[in-house]
Amino acid sequence: MEKEWFTSWFDTSYYHTLYKNRDDSEAEKFVMNLIHHLKLPKTVKVLDLACGKGRHSVTLNKLGYDVLGVDLSPASIASANQYKNDRLRFAVHDMREIIENKSFNVIFNLFTSFGYFNGTKDNKKVLNSIHSMLSNEGVLVIDFMNAKRVIENLVETEVKRVDELVFNISRRYDGNHIYKEIKFEDIGKSFSYTERVQALKKDDFENLLSACNFEILRTFGDFNLSEFNEKDSDRLIIIAQKK
After folding, report:
1. pTM
2. What angle do CA 143, 79, 103 make, to 5 degrees?
3. Both 92 and 174 in a single domain?
4. Which of 31, 19, 33 minimizes the C-alpha distance to 55?
5. pLDDT band at 224, cuts 50/70/90?
6. DSSP structure class, residue 81
7. Are residues 129 and 9 located together in one domain of the fold?
8. Per-residue pLDDT tens for 117-150?
């Protein structure tokens, strides 16, 4: 059976090197904007699904919430564990599976952490698991790229130097997935990894969420929660509620 691309790439130190300069202050502001919009009481239980190294989880916890952050990458969870406390925990977990004996009022899936799979079957598996873990009328927040805008503005080749490494990056769209091929050399060896994300658009999410018994409450187009516009928005942010 072919190994899924994210099981190896996300767990390498090179992945964290390439993306080390992500804007934590922007992520923090985004979470604060979401909390302000949702008006969540401090008593709710929160799941940060595909949490990476935990930057969104940490902000949620600082705002007073009880948070579990989960990710498929053991390396990411090992890093996130430096922040754990009695109201902030982390665990290795595949988002397609239910976390047994856990219920949440709100589940966040942020920073394009959806659509890594081959097709609709696994997408529905993720959403069905989320539905099972949410309390009655629980809320799901998905933060995804605006696929239409990304495709129209695809940067085909790029060279990015981080620390001592030079990453040669190429991108393409095959009609279903956006591919990002990453090549570099280190310790006398050549490395090559490929990221692949489904180019899901707003109507794709509407169909998926409806099929999995969710109702979309709002959509936004950026981290400041401006209205979504398919032509110009940077992000597709969806607030949905369990039916």
Report:
1. 0.95
2. 55
3. no
4. 31
5. very high
6. G
7. yes
8. 888 999 999 999 999 999 999 999 999 999 999 9
Check which CATH number belongs to the domain holding 44 and give it.
3.40.50.150
Q: What DSSP designation does 20 have?
A: T
Residue with tokens 């790229």: 145
Task: State the total domains in the chain.
Answer: 2
> Which tokens sit at 101?
């004996």
Mean pLDDT of the chain: 95
Whether pLDDT at 2 is above 70? no
Domain that residue 232 falls in:
5-147+201-242
Contact 112, 234 (CB under 8 A): no
Helices 55-62 and 24-38, axial angle in degrees (round to 10) = 50
Do 178 and 211 share a domain, yes or no?
no
As a whole number, mean pLDDT of residues 28-55 equals 96
Q: Is residue 17 a contact partner of residue 162, using CB atoms and an 8 Å limit? A: yes
Other C-beta atoms within 10 Å of 19: how many? 12
CA separation for the pair 195, 175 (Å, rounded): 15
The 10s digit of each residue's pLDDT in 172-211 is 999 999 999 999 999 999 999 999 999 999 999 999 999 9
The torsion defined by the Cα of 219, 221, 222 and 226, in degrees rounded to 10, comes to -80
Question: Is residue 24 within a helix (H) or strand (E), and if so which, with residue range?
Answer: helix 24-38
Is residue 24 domain-shared with residue 84, that is, in the same domain? Answer: yes
State residue 21's pLDDT score.
80
Q: What is the rounded CA–CA span in Å between residue 50 and residue 41? A: 23
Q: Are residues 158 and 214 in the same domain?
A: no
Pick from 243, 129, 115, 85: which is nearest to 179 by CA?
A: 115
Give the C-alpha separation, 9 to 16, whole Å.
Answer: 10
